[in-house]
């Protein structure tokens, strides 16, 4: 009797024994709406792929093959490639609508863009404009039910016949993004298909459900692309956002998966965690659309929930970015089979069942968008009108940012802002505010009185008060702080429209140059520029000998050179003076840097060029540990920075291989955040450091180094809550409120320390997302970066954690034999858009070798 009851419950939930389910659940009739007829000339997925949807996991090349065939077969479809991944896989967007709409597609796009311009939106007759719905599938590659549901969605929209589908296609334009993360999807599909037997194994212990590190969730460099909608650091995101703003959709769906033992979630999320910049009507529309999902899922017997677990606070997610752009973002989370069929708390969860739920809510979204078409278009128009009215009333009239000594960093922030369809200008003339002078050459102004006002505020605000203390993602992402740029909010008292100079319509990286012509003596460039490390490494690749100035100096011509200036002697190099000059001209241009010709070593002030304080540099030979136990996000961010941005060649070594390999080829080892346990030999690493190596430990790796006696680092102990009893119902929220999900804090730099070379302001914002509080060293020289007494700049932190954080160390340097141990509890490379702290990490790699043992904490410094 019990077995019969369990099977009945499983059937009600949509689960069932895998062997029986496989045959019945992969037929098209299992997925497609009953009573619909289909055009037999349109190929089914089986016709092209040779198997039924859900029988195997579709690989990206197969998905592409099917979408190309559908483009050729149906006049309802137009296929567009919008980007290429890091692994050179194409990303496609399918525009699906009626043939009449296809003929007028440019006009429809223009009308949607016109709705976002308040001065023009009233001219659009929304009764005649189709709604635009963007369907985005599987941004996480190992959440594959979405991408596989895209096969069904495209087939249904191309082949379905009858007045119902014709009406839908006349009244909507459907944009299908079948695989947001091709590299991750392919990685995952290869794993699960390789480990699938002829007879499905549902035991959760099977290797099929335990893919190898780094797993398929992320892209090539192990980034979560669902966090990149605001930072725009990857080709997938840049191409997608350009299409988003080309179309200005009304609804965007984001199809995900969650734990195997869950059911199905659709938005809205927790109301108290909505971003305050999102209008209340967005939440109401999301709720109303949710009623269509509920009805559709009820019809097929699937369990679901809503207004729990997830939130809409961070605008860098695919389901939240639309909310600050006049659209409605919808997150779907389907319990994941993580393979073909797996036992769960609710019975055996099959892959076809997960696909059916995603496809079903694809159709319910389209039904809602069609029924609510004028309501959604009105919301889009009102969103921008109201935003512009809010901007007119706001105290802040513009934001200015820039950098006198690092135009590249300011350029990259302006580049991101422009991609979000925000107008950016140069100042018409120089002006000073808060003792900082902004010039037309080094600064940018973003006026707030423009339709994207809410998004501008989202990028520039420094919010520290919140309705809720729990966050699904980070609580702060203030861009000028992330870039560590001089910036200011301008009120009506210090900003007038006539201060705006040229509008920035196109951006190119500023060109560098060699100043002073050819030298037969030496050249020098300062370390302030963002790409200074790349220029140095390129010189090292050519075998050019270099030195670094550990003090300031000035030339007879009045040129001032700061700590960290790189010196390039002309004599003794592997190339003659002419070739060296030509090389420096090329590299200076590429890296937006000024290289100065030096004609004498006798400086009138500061150190002389032959001083022992000009220290020889050795090219970093970097090993990065990856693999089990290592945080793949943090490791990927470090790898991407070195490889993609600075043209360095770190050797990626799996933790499993560390103990059996020779280390003498490397002089820097990077331990990203992670739990290293006993996977690598502490004695071997310790011995290598003692012989002169530099180990850089980030996040939890800092604790591992401390626990294993590699460096003298101590951490504060968490303070225990002495309250004897609390209600069980509040346990999750109480504990969650002590999490630092991601906030921004102020630190103070020792600008004379090698790890701070290139910085000119002793105050620096740092991003933090953990509760590792590092004690200050007893050595007065070992902590070149310290948290201040009032560190919170933006984001959420509990009062107890804030007290713990005050006046703690953000960086620690220990001497160990002839080597150095450099640790940072925080991630200086967070999501690739924290340009401001990248130099801390790079300085550890390039200058760890020159830090004096006397300036670091020694082994007996407790």
UniProtKB/TrEMBL annotation:
Q: Which residues form the signal peptide?
A: 1-21
Instruction: Name the needed cofactors.
Output: Zn(2+)
Write out the GO cellular component annotations: extracellular space
Supply the PANTHER family for this chain. Answer: PROTEASE FAMILY M14 CARBOXYPEPTIDASE A,B, SLL0236 PROTEIN
Family per record = Belongs to the peptidase M14 family.
**One Pfam family cited in the UniProt record for this chain:** Peptidase_M14
Q: From its record, what is one biological process in GO terms?
A: proteolysis
Report keywords, A-Z. Carboxypeptidase, Hydrolase, Metalloprotease, Protease, Signal, Zinc
Give the source's domain of life in one word. Answer: Bacteria
Recorded hits in InterPro entries, A to Z, give: Class_I_gatase-like (IPR029062), Peptidase_M14 (IPR000834)
Q: What is this protein called?
A: Zinc carboxypeptidase
Q: Is Cell inner membrane found in the keyword set?
A: no
Organism for this UniProt entry: Pontibacter akesuensis
Query: What molecular functions are annotated in GO for this chain?
Result: metallocarboxypeptidase activity; zinc ion binding
- Domain Peptidase M14 spans what residues? 56-463
């Amino acid at each position: 009797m019990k077995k019969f009851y369990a099977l009945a419950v499983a059937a009600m939930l949509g689960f069932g024994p895998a062997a029986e389910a496989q045959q019945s659940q992969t037929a098209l009739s299992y997925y497609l709406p009953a009573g619909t007829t289909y055009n037999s000339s349109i190929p089914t997925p089986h016709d092209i792929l040779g198997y039924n949807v859900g029988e195997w996991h579709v690989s990206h090349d197969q998905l592409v093959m099917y979408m190309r065939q559908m483009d050729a077969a149906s006049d309802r479809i137009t296929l567009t490639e919008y980007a290429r991944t890091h692994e050179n896989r194409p990303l496609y967007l399918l525009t699906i609508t009626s043939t009449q709409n296809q003929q007028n597609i440019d006009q429809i796009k223009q009308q949607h863009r016109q709705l976002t311009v308040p001065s023009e939106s009233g001219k659009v007759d929304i009764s005649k404009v189709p709604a635009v719905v963007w369907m985005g599938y599987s941004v996480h590659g190992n959440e594959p039910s979405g991408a596989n549901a895209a096969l069904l969605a495209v087939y249904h929209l191309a082949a379905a016949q009858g007045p119902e589908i014709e009406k839908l296609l006349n009244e909507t334009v459907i944009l299908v993004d079948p695989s947001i993360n091709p590299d991750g999807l392919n990685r995952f599909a290869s794993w699960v298909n390789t480990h699938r037997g002829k007879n499905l194994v549902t035991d959760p212990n099977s290797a099929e459900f335990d893919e190898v590190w780094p797993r398929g969730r992320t892209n090539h460099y192990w980034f979560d692309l669902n966090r990149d909608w605001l930072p725009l650091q990857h080709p997938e995101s840049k191409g997608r956002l350009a299409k988003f703003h080309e179309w200005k959709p009304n609804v965007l769906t984001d199809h995900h998966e969650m734990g195997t033992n869950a059911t199905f979630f659709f938005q809205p999320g927790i109301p108290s965690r909505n971003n305050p910049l999102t209008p209340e009507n967005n939440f109401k529309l999301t709720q109303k659309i949710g009623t269509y999902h509920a009805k559709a899922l009820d019809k097929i017997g699937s369990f679901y929930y809503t207004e729990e677990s997830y939130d809409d606070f961070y605008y860098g997610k695919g389901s939240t970015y639309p909310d600050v752009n006049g659209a409605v973002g919808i997150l779907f989370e389907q319990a994941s089979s993580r393979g073909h069929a797996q036992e769960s708390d609710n019975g055996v969860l099959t892959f076809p069942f997960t696909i059916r739920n995603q496809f079903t809510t694809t159709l319910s979204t389209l039904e809602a968008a069609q029924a609510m078409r004028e309501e959604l278009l009105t919301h889009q128009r009102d969103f921008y009108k109201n935003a512009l009215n809010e901007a007119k009333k706001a105290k802040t009239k513009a934001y200015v940012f820039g950098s006198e000594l690092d135009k590249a960093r300011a350029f990259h922030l302006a580049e991101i802002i422009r991609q979000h369809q925000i107008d950016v200008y140069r100042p018409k003339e120089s002006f000073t505010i808060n003792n900082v002078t902004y010039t037309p050459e080094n600064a940018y102004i973003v006026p707030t009185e423009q339709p994207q006002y809410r998004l501008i505020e989202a990028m520039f605000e420094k919010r520290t008060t919140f309705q809720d203390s729990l966050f699904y993602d980070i609580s702060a992402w203030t861009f000028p702080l992330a870039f560590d740029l001089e910036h200011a909010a301008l009120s009506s008292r210090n900003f007038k429209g006539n201060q705006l100079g040229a509008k920035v319509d196109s951006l190119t990286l500023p060109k560098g140059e060699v100043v002073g012509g050819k030298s037969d003596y030496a050249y020098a460039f300062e370390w302030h520029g963002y790409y200074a490390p790349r220029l140095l490494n390129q010189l090292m690749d050519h075998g050019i000998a270099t030195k670094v100035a550990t003090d300031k100096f000035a030339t007879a011509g009045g040129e001032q050179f700061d700590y960290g200036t790189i010196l390039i002697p002309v004599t003794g190099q592997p190339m003659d003076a002419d070739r060296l000059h030509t090389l420096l001209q090329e590299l200076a241009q590429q890296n937006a840097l000024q290289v100065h010709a030096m004609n004498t070593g006798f400086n009138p002030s500061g150190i002389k060029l032959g001083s022992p304080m000009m220290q020889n540099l050795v090219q970093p030979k970097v090993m990065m540990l990856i693999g089990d136990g290592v945080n793949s996000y943090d490791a990927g961010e470090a790898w991407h920075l070195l490889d993609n941005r600075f043209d360095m060649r770190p050797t990626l070594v799996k933790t499993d291989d560390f103990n059996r390999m020779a280390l003498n080829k490397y002089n820097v080892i990077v331990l990203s955040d992670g739990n290293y346990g006993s996977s690598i030999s502490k004695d071997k690493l310790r011995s290598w450091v003692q012989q002169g190596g530099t180990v850089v430990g980030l996040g939890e790796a800092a604790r591992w180094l401390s626990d294993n006696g590699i460096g003298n680092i101590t951490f504060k102990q968490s303070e225990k809550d002495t309250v004897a009893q609390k209600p069980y119902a509040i346990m999750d929220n109480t504990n969650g409120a002590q999490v630092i999900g991601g906030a921004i804090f102020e630190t103070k730099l020792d600008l004379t320390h090698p790890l701070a070379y290139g910085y000119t302001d002793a105050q620096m914002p740092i991003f933090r997302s953990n509760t590792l509080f590092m004690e200050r060293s007893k050595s007065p020289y070992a902590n070149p970066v310290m948290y201040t007494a009032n560190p919170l700049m933006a984001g959420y932190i509990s009062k107890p954690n804030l007290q713990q954080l005050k006046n703690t160390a953000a960086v620690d340097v220990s001497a160990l034999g002839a080597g150095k141990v450099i640790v940072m509890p925080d991630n200086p490379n967070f999501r690739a858009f924290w340009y401001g702290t990248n130099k801390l990490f790079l300085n550890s790699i390039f200058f760890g070798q020159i830090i004096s043992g006397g300036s670091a904490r020694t082994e007996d410094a407790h």
